[in-house]
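User: I'm writing a short methods note and want a consistent example. For ATP synthase subunit J, I'll paste the sequence; you return only the structure tokens, no commentary, since I'll be parsing the reply automatically.
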Amino acid sequence: MNNFRFLKLSPPQILVLGFAAVILIGTLLLMLPVSSTSGESLQFIDALFTATSATCVTGLVVVDTGTYFTVFGQIVIMVLIQVGGLGFMTMATLFALVLKRRISLRDRLILQEAMNQGSMEGIVRLIRKVLIYSLVIEAGAAVILSMRWAFDMPLGRAVYFGIFHAVSMFNNAGFDIFGDFRSLTEYVSDPIVNIVVMFLIVSGGIGFIVMSDLVDYRRRTRRLSLHSKVVLSMTAALIVIGTVVIFVFEFTNSRTLGPLNFGGKIWAAFFQSVTPRTAGANTLDIAGLRQASQFFIVILMFIGASPGSTGGGIKTTTFTLMIGAVISMLRGREDIVLFRYRLAQERVFKALTVTLLALLLIVTVSMVLSTTEDRAFLMILFETTSAFATVGLSMGLTPELSQAGKILICLTMFAGRLGLLTLAYAIGPKQGKQLYKYPEGKMIIG
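Assistant:
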């Protein structure tokens, strides 16, 4: 890690180059003949797409992970998911801690940028917690899933499946190795698989800061931070609203909830509401959903997970802040107040910037894909939003993308995982504080 100090690069630039390097290494490994069951080398563009999807913990695939790749190839994908989900700097910190090497100031600055923190205070302690929480949760889930799947397959295979899917789902990647692009559709009504996978998705999506807050709740003053309150309340609200909407819209759909009993309908609606938290796994045929449900999932994917998590999207806190700004404006108030805390105007500007940049990217990519891919616009919009929010849900377009479409989706996944502000700062570093103000002007709004 100390080698970073010799590079005259800003933390955002190092993050961008670091993720690009991980993707390149993954691409080369997936192109090896030993990675494919056919013994032939995967095409560069398809290997690049798969490596990008894994490192950016998205889950969109152009070849079926369960049938195309050998165990070696699948392990490469699993490692890319783990590195991409926790961040390559987090993994580098792990090795530094194991080797008892000092974490330099520059390394701490990069970690601060990677974890989206406001300061360096306690950043190494947070990284330790991230590693411990991830290992404990993934190991526990892997054991439960292995025991459940041991009833359906040989024990060794069940253990392997348990480990792979625990890593994939906790990191909100959505990759599966069941084959034939069917994800978890065979377990649509299975309580154990549903509960464990949804727990992995939510725990990976709420963010490590919130997780740390919850773990330390009893040891401290029994109070949660404002950030944790906003994340937990908005996450719960989105899941409940999503479950109700999907349950109502799909109740009579013969391709989704229709054939299931009432309990199965509840499990399926609940799961499809949780997975747009940027997980990508599905227990229903996404292409079989009604258009209203598909568009609603686009909205859920756009919002995404929470800051400092393994997920993407504009984040639940950004969405909450935007709603708070609208409510404050409608009530004629200048300040945005959440849980009796007033939020700085700078937070509002940042939330607005993130939201508008995300909309601009999605609209632009969707328009370009509309010219390169001969598909319905909703399908293109769905796939684009899934790529940006690093979700991985698909209506079936990704395996049929043109070469230009694959490259465009790769860039969208990369931008979604790194964050648009991080990319913007990497291209053009932040300017210093402005020492003067222009005279105030007036213009009509609305």
